[in-house]
Structures are given as structure tokens and as C-alpha cells.
Amino acid sequence: MINRNHPAFKKGAEPFYSIIMEGLKGAVDGGHFWDAVAESAVFEFLYRFPGFAAQIEGRKAYMDWFGGYSMVLHTADNLKIHRSTETGVIILEYQVHGVTPANRPYHNSFCSIITIKDRKIVHWRDYMDSLAVVLATSPA
Q1: Strands 105-117 and 89-99
Q2: Distance CA 89, CA 115 (A)
Q3: What is the rounded distance in angstroms from the CA atom of residue 61 to the CA atom of residue 86?
Q4: If DSSP codes are grouped into helix, strand and coil, which group holds residue 110?
Q5: Per-residue pLDDT, 56
Q6: 13 and 66 Cβ atoms separated by less than 8 Å
Q7: How far apart are CA 6 and CA 60, in angstroms?
Q8: What is residue 99's DSSP assignment?
Q9: Which pLDDT score is estimated for 48?
Q10: CA gyration radius, the chain
């Protein structure tokens, strides 16, 4: 059972959770993103920032990291769903929009390659526009 009081269940991330669940509709079980993630899921991030891990192993570890996610998202859109010829692989392209902790606009584009087994996310490979983060979080 997932602790719904965990900091990863944050309102400021709901647009992300919702667009992912929309893109995976019918392929995963659960009403929330965290319900759809297998306990032993592996998350790979193909972008580098100082202090940011290239890989996080396990749902709890990713939830703990996500609990500290500081962007506040207002919307997510432009979802494109691609079905791979590889069984259980779905590729999602999407954008998120919100503000940084300094209340500066934040807009980013992602491509997430998601592997599903037994109706749970078991692997996630993520690409994003790293420059969008740098520009949104750099001093003006």
C-alpha cells in the first residue's frame, strides 16, 4: 500500500501525473501515477545537472526524490503517444508549464520511454529540454 501522505503526492505535480496516466491509459493499473509504478522500477534521466542522479532505483527512492521537486506545475499538454514495436514499450512526448520556486515561468518538453510489465511501470528513460531548466532557474 502506498502512503498517500507522502510528499510526492503534491498538488504542484498533478499536471505531470495526469498527463502520464492519460498517455498510459489502458496499459497500467491504478488511479494515480504512483499506483502504476512497480516497487522495483528503474528511472533513467538522460540529462545532467550537478547533484542530480542519472538513475534512481525503486519507487520509494523516486518518490523521496520527487517529494523535493520544487517546480509548481499548472498544466501539461501536447501529449503524443507512440506505441513501440517492442512489447510493453510506450513513448510519450509532452510539455509541462508552471513556475520555479522564484515564481519565474517554467516550460519544458519531455520524451519518456516507458516499459510496462504486468500492468506496472518497470523502467522509465527520460529526455527533456535541459536548457529550459537552466534558463528558468538562472539569475535574471
Answers
A1: antiparallel
A2: 5
A3: 27
A4: strand
A5: 97
A6: yes
A7: 10
A8: E
A9: 85
A10: 15
pLDDT at residue 50, as a whole number? 81
Which residue type does 20 have? I
* pTM given for the model: 0.94
**Chain center to CA of 126:** 8
- Give the residue from 61, 64, 45 showing the smallest Cα distance to 53: 45
DSSP conformation letters of 31-81: SSHHHHEEEEEEEEE-S--TT--SEEESHHHHHHHHTT---EEEEEEEEEE
Q: 89: which DSSP letter?
A: E
Pairing assessment for the beta strands 55-57 and 105-117 based on DSSP bridges: unpaired
User: Which residue type does 31 have?
Assistant: G
**The C-alpha cell of 8 is what?**
510526492
Lookup: cell for 34? 504512483
Per-residue pLDDT for the chain (140 aa), expressed as one digit of tens each?
788 999 999 999 999 999 999 999 999 999 999 999 999 999 999 998 888 889 999 999 999 999 988 999 999 999 999 999 999 999 999 999 999 999 999 999 999 999 999 999 999 999 999 989 988 988 86
